[in-house]
Each structure stands twice: as C-alpha cells, then as structure tokens.
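Entries read sequence, tokenised fold; example below:

***
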Amino acid sequence: MSADAAAPAAAPEPVPLRIKLAYGAGAVAYGVKDNGFAVFLLIFYNQVIGLSAGLVGLAVMIALIIDAFIDPVIGHLSDRTNSRWGRRHPWLYLSIVPVGLSWFLLWHPPEWSDTGILIYLTLSAILVRSAIAMNEVPSIAMLPELTRDYHERTDVIRYRFLFGWAGGLFLLFLAYGVFLAPTPEEPAGLLRREGYDLYAWTGVVMMALSVLIAAIGTHRRLAHRALRLPPRQPLGAELKAMVRTLNNRAFLILMGAGIFAYANQGLNFATSTYMQTYVWEFPGWAFTVWPVMLLVGVVFAFIAAPVVSRRLGKKRAAALMAAIAVTLGLLPYILRLLGLFPANGDPATLPLFLALVTLATGFGICPMILTGSMLADVIEDSELKTGHREEGLFFAGNLFMQKCVTGIGTFAAGSLITLIGFPDNAVPGQVDAAIIDRLMLLFTLLTALFIAGAVWTFLRFPLGEEDHTERLALLAGRSKASQQG
C-alpha cells in the first residue's frame, strides 16, 4: 500500500446481508430528498405558493449548482478524516440533525414577496442538499471499502438503489394517498398547503432514522482509525491534487454518461405530476397506484442488474438498459401523438400506461446501479495511477454531477412549462389541447436526446472485468514490494 493511502477495509469473504441492508438503508434520506425535489417542489412553489414555474426552476438550478461545489470538499475531507470512528462515520452521525432541520424549512416558506420567496427557496434548497451531502458522500463512498470484487460491487450497491427508491416512493404513496389526497372541500388535493406540512414532517423522521441506521449498522465493520493518511498541504496544493485525481479518463466518461441520464431523470420527475394530472387526467386514486408500480420496477432492476452485468459486462448492460427504458417510457406519448393510444377515461389507458412506466422504470434504474458499480472500479484505476485512494472525492464528484444536472433537468422542466404557455391554477380537462400536444412533443424530443447521449457515452467506458483483475494484481504486487522495502 502507498504511504498516503488508508488501509482498505474490504474483507476476503462476501459482504454479509446485514451490512448490505444497513448500507442500503442510508439511501432512504437521499431518496426522500430526490423524490421531493423532483416531484413536488415545482408544483408546491408554483401552484401552492404562487411563484412562477420558470423562477422555481431557476432557483433550484442555481441552488443545486452552487451547493454541488460543496460535495467535492466533503468527499476530500472525508477521505482524510482520521478519528477513532474512521473516515466516514463521523460525517454520518453529524449529518442527522442538519438533514431533518433543513428538510422541514424547505417546505415551510414564509409569506414573503416573490423576490423573498425566490431567495428563501434558493437558500433552503442549498441547505438541504448540503446536509444530505454530509451523509450521502461518505456513506456511498464506503462501497469500494466494503468489497473489491468486480461483480459483488454491483450486488452491494443495488441495495442503496432499492432502499433509496423504496423510501422515496413510500413517502410519495403517503403523499398521494393521504397527505395530498382529494377531499370534498379541496378536490385538488395537490394544492392543499396543510398536506405538505405532514409530508415534510414524515420526511424528517424517515431521513433522520435512515442515516442513524446506516451509521450504526456499518459502524463495527468500517468505523476504524485509518492506518495512514496523506500529509496536509496548503489549500492551493490540495485543490490541484483534487483536480489531478478527478482528471481520470474513465471517471470523466462515466460522468459524461451521467450528465445525460440524470438530466433526463430531472426532466421526467419534474414533469410527472403535470403529465399525470393534465395530459392523462388520471383520477386521484391512480396517484397512489403509481408509486406501487414504480416500486415493482425498482425490484425488477434490483434483480436484473447483477444478472445482465455478468452476461454483457457493465458498460454494455448499462447502454442496452438505457435504450430499452427510453423506448418503453416514451411509447405512451408517441402513440398518443399519433392518435393510437386509448383516450383518457378508457378502461385500458391507466393499466397500459402503468405497465409501460413500470417496465421503463425497471430498465432505467439498471444503468444507475451499474454506474455506481463502475465508479467503484475507477477507484483502483486511479490508485494505480496516483498512488492513493480517494473514494470520497470520486463519489462526491459523481454527486456533484447529479446535483448540477438534475438542476438542469428541473430547470428544463420549468422552462418547458413556461415555454408552452401552461396556465397557472390549471384545471384538469380544461387545458387547451394544443398546449397538451406541445408539452408531449417537446418532452419526447428532449428525453430521446438525453438518452441517446447517455447510450453513446456509456459504450466508451474503458474499464472491464479483465482490466479490474489485472489492476488488483498490480496493486497487490506494489503493496508487497513496498512492505518488503
């Protein structure tokens, strides 16, 4: 091992199920946050608070981009944290209170002017994202420390996606079915301000508990003082070292694929409520079925990702799954534009839509799981070239990309809503058909463009299983030589 690397925590035996479950549980906080930002934040601040959709999208994009610069710093610092609880766990424990408090503030804006609300939204969004980063960056960075096995990494990280999506969808189910369900007094349930209060409090509890469970569950295995850490350097030297580390070809290609994939995710989630309410005009109860069907898709991805990865390799599997996902996801809109999809109110419309969305979700999550696994493989590639391991910095760079790009997707959604002239306080069934058609057409074109870019970039990822085995052998030989020397 190099002089500035911490001893790898991976054990030769497979990662126990209890560790996988604890590691996965920590993603609930991120899933709740991601779901809230993607599904409800735009409609809450636009239709409930009264801020224009364009300003909401702009605020979120600015907040995410500014906040995202914090992530590499957290990753860099967590790589160098030296405590009796190891490198990652102090960050997990310290993030619990900020995560809950910031989430509560986001959903309780004061009654200010539009300018004041815009500033409040921007600042509170930064606070939420920064608090989540204190947990998510060190937490997900534990993957390369848990195992160095090429395929087991896919098996382990899929638990984070299972728990992250399940947590977000569970709260989404409660929001549609309980907190924001239509009532005789307020048939437009999504506009109930008090419902968002309950939504916020439930999120606070779920997020705080998930961070605590993950920290305690992985404490015994990973919360150990690092044997060696790199020496402290002046700020300028530290920044140059961070740039050199992240200037890894495999990492940059993977981030390029992620830019397209997460921009698409941000666009899809930010427009999902508009699509289901105004394009498809689904009844209120359908909103409670939707999260359940999405969860079915998540379970499908949980099962399928390791299988398809072993058969095709990670990069080819990711590209293929992304292409299948976008085809299935856009099919309802393409058929509707061509006049071939059942009309709204037809008994076949909802089941057909949900079936296609469920399959698209399952195939679409597979590339995300595989991206996380491929990112773990980048760690050894970087270690071989630089002489040290910086899991936190690389996973922070990935989170940095997700935040910036999801903000772009949300901004694109808000701009799309504004561009087509979508009315404020819109009533389902009473929106001009021309506006609905423009919404579907532009949404379809943007989605197809994003995923085409992701597929093209995934196929250029340079690392594979044989390369990984060779790198581990070279690192082992280097470590042995260092010890003998």
Summary: The chain has one domain: 23-223+239-478. Confidence is low (pLDDT under 50) at residues 1-11. The first helix runs from residue 17 to 25. Residues 23-223+239-478 form a domain with the Growth Hormone; Chain: A; fold (CATH 1.20.1250.20).
